[in-house]
Amino acid sequence: MTEKPIVNIISNSNYESRRVSKRLMDKLLALNFVPSLDLNQDAVLTIVVGGDGAFIKAVNKTAFSSIPVVGINTGHLGFYQEIIPDQLDDFLKAYVEGNYMIEELSLIGAEVFTKNRSFYLTALNEIVIKAQHSKVIHLNLFLNRNHVEKFSGDGMLVATPSGSTGYNFSAGGSLIYPTMEVLEITPLNPLTSSAYRSLPNSIVIPGDIITTIVPERRYTNSSLLVVDGVEYTYRQLRKINIRMSKRKIQRITLNKDNYWTNLKSKFL
Q1: pLDDT at 115 over 60
Q2: Over 90: is that where the pLDDT of 99 sits?
Q3: Which end of the chain is more exposed for a tag (fewer CB within 10 A), N or C?
Q4: Across the strands, what pairs with 140?
Q5: Model-level pTM greater than 0.85?
Q6: How far apart are CA 76 and CA 3, in angstroms?
Q7: In the beta sheet, which residues pair with residue 45?
Q8: 169 marked as part of a ligand binding site
Q9: How far apart are CA 255 and CA 261, in angstroms?
Q10: Has 15 been labeled as part of a binding site?
């Protein structure tokens, strides 16, 4: 007897998301799927119900699993959440019939070095380094060990292409098509004066270039790392090496041109 395929459902806690999740579970059962509210590593699909924030939290929660993921949007307009609740039947029909595409989204990895230890962090959207307590921070930026600048300002952000529409864009960064193999380094409120000379605009680099950020010694105990919105603090922070991860997530899409529709609706 063939086992029924398992589908993970990860939902926001708000009323609309819970309501849509219940409808989704009923429809999956009718199609001989087994819906799971726990993360099952044997699942064939993970469905995230919520907004873009829910999607980002979900892929982090799954440890960036290779299980294909799709988003049902119950929040504001989302770039990750393609399906709206009224399209549940259309999506499930397309999925069962195999009428969908897999879009591979790049991840960003950071190796964090303190005086005595190192840590590895992964993100879908961006990694940010800034000072705690709203102070100006001074950072040295290296690309493949080549010193580029001594930055002074609120901080520095490194975004993936799919993350370029989020914090990066709000900070003045450029939009990058989500499947490109590049990263974007965006300054956060750089200081530019006779005393401080920081690059005022973003830099777009190939994903295999190693970006190294070294805080000045006086900031080694007061630097804050923000990884997909989650804050980390480290004592005696020495440097951070950032590059595009070799891992990717598999996002299901029904229309690859949906990116341009979302772009116009959200920003124009």
Answers
A1: yes
A2: yes
A3: N
A4: 150, 214
A5: yes
A6: 37
A7: 7
A8: yes
A9: 10
A10: no
pLDDT, residue 124, reads 98
Q: Give CA separation, 106 vs 30, 122, 163, 202, 246, in Å.
A: 34, 11, 10, 19, 8
pLDDT digits (tens, 9 = 90+) for 216-266: 877 667 789 999 999 999 888 999 999 999 999 999 999 878 888 888 888
CA-closest candidate to residue 63, choices 2, 134, 123, 139: 123
- Return the amino acid letter for 221: N
Assign 78 a pLDDT band (cuts: 50, 70, 90): confident
Active-site annotation, residues: 52
Integer Cα distance of 215 and 132 in angstroms? 13
Annotated binding-site residue? 126: yes
Is 52 one of the annotated binding-site residues?
Answer: yes
Q: DSSP labels for 190-222?
A: --BSSS-B---S-EEEETTSPEEEEE-GGGTTS
Asked if residues 153 and 130 have their Cβ atoms less than 8 Å apart, the reply is no
Alpha-carbon span 128 to 130, nearest angstrom: 7
Using alpha carbons, list the distances in angstroms from residue 48 to 77, 91, 167, 248: 15, 13, 21, 17
Domains by residue range for the chain, with CATH: 6-99 (3.40.50.10330), 107-246 (2.60.200.30)
Spatial CA neighbour of 204 closest among 228, 231, 177, 225: 177
186 appears as a binding residue in the annotation: no
**Residue 128: partners with Cβ closer than 8 Å, 6 or more residues away:** 155, 156, 157, 158, 167, 188, 225, 226, 227
Q: In a 3-state reduction of DSSP, which class is residue 18?
A: helix
H or E element, residue 22: helix 15-30
